[in-house]
Each structure stands twice: as C-alpha cells, then as structure tokens.
Amino acid sequence: MTATIPNLPSLYEPFSTEAKWQKFWEENQVYKADPNHGGEPYCVVIPPPNVTGSLHMGHAFESALIDVLVRYHRMRGRNTLWLPGTDHASIAVHTMLEKQLKKEGKTRYELGREQFLERAKQWKAESGGFIVNQLRRLGVSVDWTRERFTLDEGLSQAVIEAFTRLYAEGLIYRGEYLVNWCPATQSAVSDVEVENQEVNGNLWHFRYPLTDGSGYVEVATTRPETMLGDTGVAVNPSDERYKHLIGKTITLPIMQREIPIIGDEFVDPTFGTGCVKVTPAHDPNDFEMGKRHNLPFINILNKDGTLNANAGEFQGQDRFVARKNVVARLEADGFLVKVEDYKHTVPYSDRGKVPIEPLLSTQWFVKIRPLADQALEFLDQQNSPEFVPQRWTKVYRDWLVKLKDWCISRQLWWGHQIPAWYAVSETNGQIADNTPFVVAKSAEEAWEKAKSQFGENVQLKQDPDVLDTWFSSGLWPFSTLGWPQETQDLATYYPTTTLVTGFDIIFFWVARMTMMAGHFTGKMPFNDVYIHGLVLDEKGQKMSKTKGNGIDPLLLIDKYGTDALRYTLVKEVVGAGQDIRLEYDRKKDESPSVEASRNFANKLWNAARFVMMNLDGQTPNQLGQPIAAELSDRWILSRYHQVIKQTINYIDNYGLGEAAKGLYEFIWGDFCDWYIELVKSRLQQNADPASRRVAQQILAHILEGILKLLHPFMPHITEEIWQTLTQQPADSRQTLSLQPYPQPDSNLINPDIETEFELLIETIRTIRNLRAEADIKPGAKVTANLQSENARERQIINSGQVYIKDLAKVETLTINDKENKQAVVEKTPLKGLKTIGLIIVAIVFIRLAYSVGYAIDRVPLFGTFFEIVGFVYSTWFISRYLLVAEARQKFWEKFFPPATDNQHSPATELQPEASENAIAGVVGTVQVVIPLKGVVDIEVLRAKLEKSLNKVEAEAQSLRGRLSNAKFVDKAPKDVVQGARDALAEAEKQGEILRDRLRSLA
C-alpha cells in the first residue's frame, strides 16, 4: 500500500494563510498566559498606541521586533506574557470630537460634559478598536484576553490611587507655573505633544531708552508682541559693554513702564546685541530669570490666543494681528532699528497645529526630584534598567538629572478627571486660584472631608481638568497587571522583562515609568530597555505627516504579505538601535526589499514542497534522527547546528537583524541551493536505500528545525508548512508556536568540515561562472582542470569530486599541482613490488645498523653518546618526514616518482597544453581551467565578446566626453554628475573583463 504523501499547493498564497492562522491562534488562546505555568517568566507590555491611531510603519517595526523576542522566549520554554492595550489619547480624541461638533455648529460647552463624554465613549466603542484590528493583521502573539485600555475601570482605580498617594506624600501640588499652551485646543500640552518646526521668520531690533535719558539699549526678538509683558532687560555681568548699566532702568516703549536692567550669567554676550528683553510670563528662560531676580510676572494672553487687558490698546487682538500692530506702533514712535530675515525653530502643538505659547497658569504639578533621584539611584547602583544599546543610558540619565516639576493637568474633558473637589461655597460658587479643595478617591469621600472642614452647607465642584495622558501611561507596566491589588499576575510577571520602544520617548514615557514604578513598587518596571531606531523612507529621511513621506504598512501587507513585511523590517536592522531605510517606489507603491522577502518565503515554500514529495509520506518523527553518511551530510548538520548556536546568541543579545540575515543565508544558500541539490541523486528510487534513507532523515530533520528557527520572524508561513510536514490532523490544536526552539549539538559542529566544504562550493561556483562567461550551454558537459600546490586543498577537492562533477556538469576532472604532478594516482602492481623491496632493504639495513651499534656500544663512553645522538636524530626524522601528510608524500616520491605513462583513467588526465583555448578562474589558491575546444565555437564567442567590448568602449568614451565638459560638471545636479562618474567606472571595469576574456581565447 502506497503511503499518502502530504503536500503544499504549488504557489504560496500569504493572504488566506495568514488570516487562517491569526484566527486559529486567537480562537484557541494559544498565547494566553498562565501565572501557574512553569518556566521563568518573560513579560512584555505593549507600548500602547493611541486609540485614535492607525497602523504606521513605526508600529509595524516595533511590533515585529517585540514579536520576535516574545515568540522566541515562548519557544525556549519561558512563561510568556505579551500584554496588549491602547491609550485613551486625551488631546487626540478631544480635538477630533470638537471638530465634529464644529461641523454641527455646536461647542462642547453647549453639549455639556456628560453628553460630550457619552459621545466619546460611543466613538470608542464603534471606531476605537481600529488600530487593534490592524495590529492583529501583523500576527502579534499577544494575550488578547488581557487587553487593557487606560480608561478602563481597573486602570482608572490605579490612577486615582497613585494621585491620592502622591498628594498625601506632598509630591503633588497645585500652583502657578509656565506651561506649554495650545490656543487651538485651549489646553496645556506636554513636551512630547510639541513638534518643533523650522520656519522663515523675522528678527526685530528695538531701542529701549534709558530712564535717565543717557541713551538706550538695543534688544532683538522674534515675538514683538511679548514686549508688552516685559519686566526687565538682562545683560551678562561680565560684558564690558553693559556692566555699567546694571541697576539702571529703562522706560518700556508703548507701556511706559519703568523696568530694571539686570545682570545674569544666562545671557550669551556673543548672541545678537548681547542685551535681551525679559518676559517672565511668556518664555521659559525668562521665567527662571524672573524668579532669580524677583521680577513681576505679567500675563498678556488669553487662553484663546488673544491679548488681554494687560496689553493695553491691543486688548482683544489675535496674537499675530497684535504682532503687526505692535511693530507698526514702535516704528511710528521711532523705536524700530531694523528687521532681519531669520530662520528659526518654532514649537507647534501636535494636535492643534498652531504655535504653542508659554503661558503662566495655575495647574497641578508632580514634585519630580524625589522620584527622579530614586530612579537615578537604581541606575547608578544597580544599572537598572539596562539599556540596549548602552549609549542610551547616558541620555536617560541626563534626562533624570535635569528634570523639573511635571505639569499633569490638562484643560480637557476626555481622560481621568482630577480627583480634587473645590469648596466653591467659599469663593462665590466659582473655582478660583484661591478656592480651597480636598483630594479624595471618590465624591463620597470628598464630601466627608469637606464637611468636616467647611460645615454641612459646603458646596463642592470637582476639578474640571483631566490628568496628562502620560500620568496613566507611567503606571502601565504594573497597573495593567492589577496594581494596586496584589494579583497573581503582578506577583508572577512583574517586573516585566523587556521594554521595546523608540529613542524619542526615553524621557516622555520610559523615565516616567521608572519614576512611578520605583516609587510605588520599589522596583524598576523592566530589566532591559531595547531602544530601536526609526524606519526611514527611501531617501533616508524620517517619515512624518508634515513631509507626507510616510509608507503605509497595510498597503505592503496587501501586496506582499505580513511575513514579508515583518521579515524585511527586522532583517534590515544592522546593530541594535540603528535606523533602517525602506526601499520604496512611490509611483508603483512597490518595495524591492519587501519583495525580496516575499521571494524568500516562496523559496522556503518550494523547498518544503520538494522535501515533502521525497519523504514517502513520512513525518520527521517517523523517519527518526539522522546519522550522517556522507561528507555533505556532515557538512549540512554542522552548518545547521552552527546556525542554531549563532541565532540563539544573536537574539539573546538583541542582535535581531543579524539573526534574521544569518537564517536567510543558511536557508536560501546552504540548505536550498546546495544541500537539496547535492542529495537529489540520492533520492531517486533506484538509489542506494541506506543512503536514500539518510538523505530523507536529514532533509526532514533540518526542514523542521528551520521552521522552528524562523518562526519568530515569519510565523504564518512556518506554521503552515510545519502543520503539513508533521501531518497534524484538521482538529489538532498543536501549533508550531509552542514547539521547543532547536538547541545546538556541539558534537555535530565541525568547523574544519565547513571550511573544506566551502572550498568545494566555491570551486563549483567558479566553474559555473566560467561556463556562463564562455556561453557554454547549460546541458553541455565540460572538462575541468584544477591545479593547486596545496596538498590539503587537492585532497579536499578529490574527496568532493563527485559533487563538483554533478553540480558543475563536469565530465572529466583533473586534479594536479602546479608542477603538473598528478594528485590522484592509481595503485599498480609495480608499486606493490617496490613496497615489498623497500621493506626487505629496510630490514637488512636495520640488522646491519644494529650489529654496528652493538659493537660501538661495547666501547666505553661511546655507547651513551650514540644513544643520545640516535634519539635526537629519530625525533627530527619523524617530525620532518612522517607527521604531516604532505611531507610523507614528498618523502615517498623521492623513492617512487609518480607515474608519467598513459596508464590512468580519464578522471586524471593532464592539463591541456598552453596553446589550447581555455578559460580560467581562481578560488583560494586553486586555479580552475576549462578547455573550450570542442565545447563552444571560439570564433562565434570571440565575435560576441568583441561586439560587447565595442559597445562598452563607446559608452565609456561618451561618458568621458560629458565629464570633460566643464559646463556639465559645474551646472548639472550633483547626483547626475556622480551618476555619470559611477557609470564610467562600471563601463571601464566591464571593458577590462571583456579584454581579459578575449586574451584567454588568443
């Protein structure tokens, strides 16, 4: 009875395959973590994407890197949890909803807070899972049963707990401070929500007259309207031009306010005029100077970006309108000196898309130094967390050192409402800066606290502001595991193992997590922080919405498949933390690099089909463990175990790109291109059964191992092939994801065999290249003469000549040294007689020597002397002539020179005479010569080469003409000129190659 042979379809179809396995993994909860499961815990929390977001290339890159690590460690037997979730993105959702209301002719105030939040929740229910579904398309191995949202009930309780604890400990306070203000959204924004843009602006120079009438000082500014809030002018105290003015005052134009001239080391004497205006309420640096010198803080802005009553005649004007009017007034009054064009950086609100304003505002703040100092202590004393690459440790440390108090309140409605209640009955029903308040975990608790302080008639209003999104995100590693409750998840999986994130949020997220975790749990939230780079566009530029140069990962997934995109993104990484450049043709929406990975998937698919068609319907388990029978078997097993060892080492040290490239080279090159080709003849039905069985065992064994090694990188195609290879039943819940990762067997690793086989591979490759150069027909057999002075090389080539003949289509193979001595000599009867004669002579010689030695030994003193001499000579003779194979061969040839008659087989024919047409190449120290006589038409080949040479020389001449033209070199774009130079160099190289080929035909 013939066994049923399982097989794969002729073409790999990624889209249905990927969807099938994504559904299988999720429905069977393959990645559901169990804290009671054995194994060392390995936990990663996903960097939560904004719930409003859509999948971009940064998400795809980061998720692919994390999934490689998680799948790998799961297969290594660790108790793995990858916890997913999303961030509520206060500003993003709030801005989106306000735009919708604006289209409807409404405002959020008309709608009211409760209805506004209901609308937000409805949007979240309908559209908020968009990015989550896109993440599913990446095949990420997360535990979807543990999916979290920063506004869900559990995380909201964690946020309230954290706020109330910090407030009780004196680490949260309410006060007036300078914040980033977005007039479009009318909210404070964090630094991470600010995008610096380079703009072409102006630098205005004004005269500020000294109050005593003795002259003036000149100041320059890019924001003239802020001069209405100036309360000082600053110079460097060591600046000889101005030090005599320190302590004097100037009269501020327009406002007619007398303000002092102060000395402050912050002022750079070499920048501008060396004299700067100080507006403490509207510039961060001026704010600090204002505090140092006790200057007044005058706010001239309303929250919508218009000027307030402190701006005098400009009250009610938009800030940019007021800018023009202030300049016009100063010019009319004779205070404008000059206006310069000035390119500078302006901070824009990422959500509001308008320039932000530093604004003095009453907000809630976290007293950051105690938290930052504790995180620094972990870093300096325990190197925790450990950054990969290590250079980011300094960046992280520098952030912690220079941190200032953190503004955590936002003037929004979507988010965690601040758990503070104001006794508005004490301030006429309104929340003012001086309204007393209580902080509590609930409205009921707040009422009890307020009643005891202000009496039964107290009226309370909860703070309308919400917390900065980064406050809840800072709790993410432990709040998602159940904190503040002592859950089993928290006990098992915390601290998490690895955080994978971008360098741009080391401070905004990483530092906040370490500070919060250090304070609330006494531990750092993760052991390692793997900082990855950016995915750059095809020109090597950072992708951004502003530039419009983003690349949609879903488009590439639809075209090439998820595995192809994932593998490309990981494989392109050269060194941990490095940026990668993604090849992309925008006109065709195609990526050559992702296409190459798709081709790699197809290569693996076709190799698997071939292997399965030659296993007689047996699985790897049924075939059993292989025992190498031939040189090629020992070589591929050595390479396989070497690659296992190499891959494990790379992944353990975050060399994910190097691991991916190593697997690519082994699978495509060693396994598919070489071993499969080498064993094809052994798989024939008429082949030796024992050899055929070993070939089947090795093919099945290594194919299954390859699927396991590659699974973390390309999970879908490897799962599909593995299910077929191992013949899993349709209702099976077995999955490759839970199979053990291969382990290297050091006993099977043989570097010497790998080195030897590499010589054979290069020899075959060289013969193939020479055949192509000479236009020898693919099916034609050739004669190849291999020459080497190295006896070891000749021995290696001789042992692998069957592979050379088979794969390079060589009919007659000659292996010689360069003195034309044959390295392969047949045994003859004459050689046997000579050997017997040599033995008889040696016996006679030994007997004679013994007699002479015995006689000498009897003479006093001579015996001992000759014993010493004999021992020394014997040692020298053995080491000189007997220890090394090549030395033994030369010693033998002194007595029996190699045969030079014609009694040898075709496989050992001598090289052709020098006059014979031939083509030659070199591999290592081996010269490869292929005679062309009788194989190709020499004259036709010569004519073809001459035609190609004429074409190349004409092209080179044309390029030289262009490059010798000064107008072309000076006026053409640099990339065009460089392209011409590169083309000329290539043409000259091709010309030299063609001339060499023609010379070989002479």
Automatic annotation (TrEMBL):
It comes from Tolypothrix tenuis PCC 7101. It comes from the Bacteria. The chain crosses the membrane at residues 836-856, 862-883. The C-terminal coiled-coil domain is crucial for aminoacylation activity. Catalyzes the attachment of valine to tRNA(Val). As ValRS can inadvertently accommodate and process structurally similar amino acids such as threonine, to avoid such errors, it has a 'posttransfer' editing activity that hydrolyzes mischarged Thr-tRNA(Val) in a tRNA-dependent manner. One of its GO terms (biological process) is valyl-tRNA aminoacylation. This is Valine--tRNA ligase. The lineage of its organism: Bacteria, Bacillati, Cyanobacteriota, Cyanophyceae, Nostocales. Monomer. Its EC number is 6.1.1.9. It is a multi-pass membrane protein. ATP binds at residue 545.
